Structures are given as C-alpha cells and as structure tokens.
Request: fold
Amino acid sequence: MRNSAKQKTSMQNFTETAVLFSGNNHLLTNHNFKHVYIRHMEPIKVGIICYPTYGGSGVVATELGKALAKKGHQVHFITYQEPVRLDAFHENIFYHEVSSLDYPLFQYTPYESALASKIVDVVKFEKLDLLHVHYAIPHASSALMAKSILREQKINIPFITTLHGTDITLVGRDPSYSPVVAYSINHSDGITSVSESLKRDTQQHFNISKHIEVIPNFIDFSRFRKTNKEHFKTAIAPQGEKILIHVSNFRKVKRVEDVVKMFHEVQKQIPSKLLLVGDGPERMSIELLCRQLGNCDHVRFLGKQDAVEDLLAISDLFLLPSETESFGLAALEAMACEVPVITSNAGGLPEIQLQGETGFMSNVGDVQDMAKNAVFILSDEARLKQFKQNAFAHAKKFSLENVLPMYENYYGLVLNASVGEFVI
Reply:
C-alpha cells in the first residue's frame, strides 16, 4: 500500500523505552498506564475530525490539534465549519470544510457520506499518516467508510476513535445508532476514552472486542490560570461576598436545579453570589426556581461566555452536581484557576477529585450534604486558601504538557501496528 513504506520508515524514528506511567506514579488519580513510552517521534500528518462547536469533545480535539501543531506535526481539521477554538493562524494547521449537498430529495442532509468523501480527498492529496476522530457519532463510521474506500486505492490510513461521553452514554445507546457505533469502534485501529468510567460504560453497553486506552482530558495553563481580576470581583460582590459558580449547557443531566437549591442553603449562612454560566433547555425553569426561592438578587445568569477563565478567576467555589459526567473538564478548569469544587460522585468525577482536599463529592441529588460541604470550605479563610492550593496542585497533573505525550505515544503505537510491527 502506498502509505505503508512511508509509515514503516517513519516508525524507525521511534525509540522504545520503559513504561510510561504506572499506578504507583500517581500522576493521575485512578489512571494506570501500562504501554511503552516512545521517546522521540518524527512529525506526522494527522487529520482531526470533530465537532467545531463549544462542546467538550470539540474543544479538546481543537486544543489537542493546536498543541500537536506547536510540536511540529501537521494537523488537518476536517469538519463542517472552522472550530471556534482555532483563533489564530499557525503554519502547521489546515482546515478543510465539509460541504453537504442541499437537494430537495433529502429531508436530512447526508453529512456522514459527505464527511467520508472529504476524508478520502484530504488523505489522498495531503498524504495524511493518521486520522483521529473525536466523538463516535458519526465520525467513526465516516472514517471507517473512508478507510475502506482508500484501501481499494492501495492507501492505508489507520484511524483512532476517542470516546468523549454522550456518544456512548446517551446517543450511542439509542437503538437507531448502537449497531453502527459498536461496529465502528471495533473496527477502529485504536480506541481511547477520556476516563476509566467511560471505558467501563462502553464495555458494559457495547460488545467491544478491542482494548480501550484511557487518556484523560487536559488543561492548557496558558489560558486557565489564576489572574488578578479584583476590580471585576468587586463589581459582582461589592460587600465581599463569596462567589460560587456553575458552568454547563443547562441540560437535565447537569442538575442545575441542585446548584440553585444548594446555593440557597449556603446563602443562609455565608453571604454569597451565584454565577450561572451557559445556556440551554433548562434555563427557563431555573429562572422560575430562583424566583420561587426569592434569591434572584444574588443570582446572575450570564449566558454563554467565551472567557470563562476570567469568571473562574474571581470565584471561590465551583459547583457541578451532575447526574453523570464522562470526565468533568469544567471542574478541572476551575481547579486550574485555584477554585475548589463541590461535585457529585458520578461518572469520571472521582478520577479528578480528591475528596476532602480539592473539594468534596456527594451522592447525586444530596443537596444538603453538598451545601454543608460548601459552607465548611467557605466559612474559614485559612481553610479556603488551603483548598484552593490543593485544587491547583492537583490540576497541574492534568496539564497539556503531561497529557500530550500520551497521545503522541499512542499515535506511534497505532502507526506501528498498522504496518505490522506489533499489535496493540
């Protein structure tokens, strides 16, 4: 195959050393990396297929691509519009727009077919080495279709599927999608998930025959860090009130009503303000709840915000009582800005939280326990300061500098396997 010789030569530039991480290293809570670390990797051409919006999978995919480009790799984004996080020119970043045919026959535009065709075109003419698709639906099936088409043209293109959450826990389980999701995952050349929890969910709900590598989400500390915004904080809390914050897409699974109820209890004991950042289907009901509780004067609905880090910089406590979280990136971003977190113990949250150190976890729906823990943190300045320091120290373990080599390493393993060097 055309790409095989090139890949095999490229793989000779990889040097295998000892184990990358072990459970005793405690780099990342509950993550146990057993694969071989590849010390040096020659630049490759990678195609990234993702959703271009503000959703977590799109943000992670875009930030990963930008980081790979800075390391010298050539990155090609393939999606229906330019990702929102592609906010600056870089010589190693390219964008390829997927155009769908607007034809009266189609009630729904066949994006999956258009995407597969675009992948074929980009792989052939940009001579890509690897595809990395984020969010299984429909990206994995499109990549698989493109791979089959290219194989008939004697071109080998391995692809990695990264599972992010609702592509497995919600949408992917729907009978309309589940057979295709399972088939596409099983025929991926590599599979990663953002948490051990999501890996277990995937194995539980789908008949997955392949190994799933856990590579956690990461924080870009050049953006998410504590900055001096005291003038901003004074405008929000003129009497020195504590500032609590929640960031989400206001879906039922986020349990934003628990945020408001929790704040109502905290506010009885600690003078405080609540910032609700985001928007979505539950916003109207949450506004009505604030009116019923009579705390509207202390709650600010800020809608969608691009510079969330500026709001985190003035916050004292982050609230995330979700029914489920595949990872909990929003909580980790808060910790990077030195904000302790109150969360549920659902999904991947226990993998990023240190109970009693970076914040507290409670059972889903236990508003009273969450409020009690929030008051405990906020009621003593020395204690609050210690929690903030702990949160920042733990978040640093999830830095981009720590996680990027895991992806580069996995790319190398998949490329090696694709030319028959070994099996993952």
About this structure: The chain has a mean pLDDT of 86. DSSP finds 15 helices and 15 strands in the chain.
